[in-house]
Amino acid sequence: AAERAPNLQFLLFDLPAVAARAAGRFAASGLSARATAVGGDLFADPLPRGADIACLIRVLYDHGRDRALAILRAVHAALPEGGTLLVAEPMAGAEGAETVGAVYFPFYLLAMRGGDARSADAICALVREAGFVDVAVRKTRSPLFTGLITARR
Question: Does the reported pTM lie above 0.70?
Fold first, then answer.
Protein backbone atom coordinates (compact mmCIF):
# COMPACT_ATOMS: atom_id res chain seq x y z
CA ALA A 1 0.00 0.00 0.00
CA ALA A 2 2.85 2.38 0.83
CA GLU A 3 4.37 1.90 -2.62
CA ARG A 4 1.10 2.38 -4.48
CA ALA A 5 -0.09 5.37 -2.44
CA PRO A 6 2.89 7.64 -1.73
CA ASN A 7 0.74 10.27 0.02
CA LEU A 8 -0.95 7.82 2.38
CA GLN A 9 -0.23 8.13 6.11
CA PHE A 10 -0.07 4.89 8.13
CA LEU A 11 -0.81 4.18 11.78
CA LEU A 12 -0.15 0.69 13.13
CA PHE A 13 -1.43 -0.46 16.52
CA ASP A 14 -0.15 -3.79 17.78
CA LEU A 15 1.51 -5.39 20.76
CA PRO A 16 4.52 -3.36 21.93
CA ALA A 17 7.11 -5.83 20.60
CA VAL A 18 5.40 -5.96 17.21
CA ALA A 19 5.07 -2.16 17.05
CA ALA A 20 8.78 -1.77 17.85
CA ARG A 21 9.72 -4.13 15.01
CA ALA A 22 7.33 -2.34 12.65
CA ALA A 23 8.86 1.04 13.54
CA GLY A 24 12.26 -0.36 12.64
CA ARG A 25 10.96 -1.65 9.33
CA PHE A 26 9.28 1.69 8.61
CA ALA A 27 12.61 3.44 9.22
CA ALA A 28 14.55 0.96 7.07
CA SER A 29 12.02 1.43 4.25
CA GLY A 30 12.13 5.21 4.42
CA LEU A 31 8.55 5.41 5.68
CA SER A 32 9.13 7.00 9.09
CA ALA A 33 7.79 10.38 7.95
CA ARG A 34 4.39 8.89 7.12
CA ALA A 35 4.14 5.69 9.16
CA THR A 36 3.73 5.49 12.93
CA ALA A 37 3.71 2.35 15.06
CA VAL A 38 1.98 2.46 18.44
CA GLY A 39 2.36 -0.36 20.93
CA GLY A 40 -0.39 -1.39 23.28
CA ASP A 41 -2.90 -3.99 24.38
CA LEU A 42 -6.06 -4.07 22.31
CA PHE A 43 -8.11 -5.03 25.36
CA ALA A 44 -6.55 -2.64 27.89
CA ASP A 45 -5.48 0.46 25.97
CA PRO A 46 -7.60 2.83 23.89
CA LEU A 47 -6.87 2.70 20.20
CA PRO A 48 -5.09 5.73 18.76
CA ARG A 49 -7.33 8.20 16.99
CA GLY A 50 -6.73 10.04 13.75
CA ALA A 51 -7.12 7.30 11.15
CA ASP A 52 -9.82 7.51 8.47
CA ILE A 53 -9.79 3.76 7.87
CA ALA A 54 -9.11 0.86 10.21
CA CYS A 55 -7.98 -2.46 8.78
CA LEU A 56 -8.41 -5.64 10.79
CA ILE A 57 -6.54 -8.37 8.96
CA ARG A 58 -7.07 -11.81 10.50
CA VAL A 59 -7.71 -10.19 13.86
CA LEU A 60 -11.30 -11.17 14.65
CA TYR A 61 -10.65 -14.75 13.59
CA ASP A 62 -8.28 -15.31 16.50
CA HIS A 63 -10.88 -14.33 19.11
CA GLY A 64 -14.17 -15.63 20.41
CA ARG A 65 -17.38 -13.67 19.94
CA ASP A 66 -17.15 -11.41 23.01
CA ARG A 67 -13.55 -10.38 22.37
CA ALA A 68 -14.21 -9.88 18.64
CA LEU A 69 -17.13 -7.60 19.51
CA ALA A 70 -14.95 -5.68 22.00
CA ILE A 71 -12.36 -5.14 19.24
CA LEU A 72 -14.99 -3.86 16.82
CA ARG A 73 -16.42 -1.51 19.45
CA ALA A 74 -12.94 -0.15 20.19
CA VAL A 75 -12.36 0.47 16.48
CA HIS A 76 -15.77 2.15 16.19
CA ALA A 77 -14.88 4.48 19.08
CA ALA A 78 -11.49 5.36 17.53
CA LEU A 79 -12.73 6.15 14.01
CA PRO A 80 -14.16 9.54 13.10
CA GLU A 81 -17.75 9.88 11.90
CA GLY A 82 -17.81 8.48 8.36
CA GLY A 83 -14.60 6.49 8.94
CA THR A 84 -14.24 3.13 7.24
CA LEU A 85 -13.71 -0.33 8.68
CA LEU A 86 -12.09 -3.01 6.53
CA VAL A 87 -12.14 -6.60 7.82
CA ALA A 88 -10.07 -9.19 5.94
CA GLU A 89 -10.56 -12.69 7.31
CA PRO A 90 -10.97 -16.29 6.28
CA MET A 91 -14.69 -16.86 5.83
CA ALA A 92 -16.43 -20.02 6.99
CA GLY A 93 -18.98 -21.21 4.48
CA ALA A 94 -16.97 -19.84 1.55
CA GLU A 95 -16.44 -21.99 -1.50
CA GLY A 96 -13.83 -24.61 -0.60
CA ALA A 97 -14.45 -24.37 3.14
CA GLU A 98 -16.05 -27.81 3.20
CA THR A 99 -12.74 -29.41 2.15
CA VAL A 100 -9.71 -27.24 2.97
CA GLY A 101 -11.39 -25.38 5.80
CA ALA A 102 -12.58 -28.56 7.48
CA VAL A 103 -8.97 -29.59 8.09
CA TYR A 104 -6.87 -26.41 8.15
CA PHE A 105 -8.96 -24.07 10.29
CA PRO A 106 -9.59 -26.40 13.26
CA PHE A 107 -5.83 -27.00 13.54
CA TYR A 108 -5.11 -23.28 13.22
CA LEU A 109 -7.61 -22.42 15.95
CA LEU A 110 -6.21 -25.18 18.16
CA ALA A 111 -2.71 -23.73 17.75
CA MET A 112 -4.03 -20.23 18.53
CA ARG A 113 -5.86 -21.62 21.60
CA GLY A 114 -9.13 -20.09 20.56
CA GLY A 115 -10.92 -18.09 17.97
CA ASP A 116 -13.77 -18.74 15.64
CA ALA A 117 -14.15 -19.35 11.92
CA ARG A 118 -17.18 -17.19 11.09
CA SER A 119 -19.25 -16.83 7.99
CA ALA A 120 -19.45 -13.49 6.23
CA ASP A 121 -22.99 -13.11 7.59
CA ALA A 122 -21.81 -13.73 11.17
CA ILE A 123 -19.01 -11.16 10.84
CA CYS A 124 -21.41 -8.64 9.31
CA ALA A 125 -23.78 -9.16 12.25
CA LEU A 126 -20.93 -8.46 14.73
CA VAL A 127 -19.89 -5.38 12.76
CA ARG A 128 -23.45 -4.05 12.86
CA GLU A 129 -23.77 -4.85 16.57
CA ALA A 130 -20.64 -2.76 17.19
CA GLY A 131 -22.43 0.22 15.63
CA PHE A 132 -21.20 0.24 12.04
CA VAL A 133 -23.47 0.91 9.06
CA ASP A 134 -23.31 0.32 5.31
CA VAL A 135 -21.85 -3.13 5.97
CA ALA A 136 -20.95 -4.93 2.73
CA VAL A 137 -19.23 -8.15 1.70
CA ARG A 138 -16.75 -7.54 -1.12
CA LYS A 139 -15.67 -10.16 -3.63
CA THR A 140 -12.14 -11.52 -3.40
CA ARG A 141 -10.25 -14.09 -5.41
CA SER A 142 -10.11 -16.56 -2.52
CA PRO A 143 -12.79 -15.84 0.11
CA LEU A 144 -11.92 -19.00 2.02
CA PHE A 145 -8.56 -17.51 2.96
CA THR A 146 -9.32 -13.80 2.60
CA GLY A 147 -12.87 -12.58 2.63
CA LEU A 148 -13.42 -8.83 2.75
CA ILE A 149 -16.05 -6.81 4.58
CA THR A 150 -16.33 -3.04 4.63
CA ALA A 151 -18.43 -0.79 6.84
CA ARG A 152 -18.74 2.84 7.83
CA ARG A 153 -18.90 4.48 11.23
Answer: yes
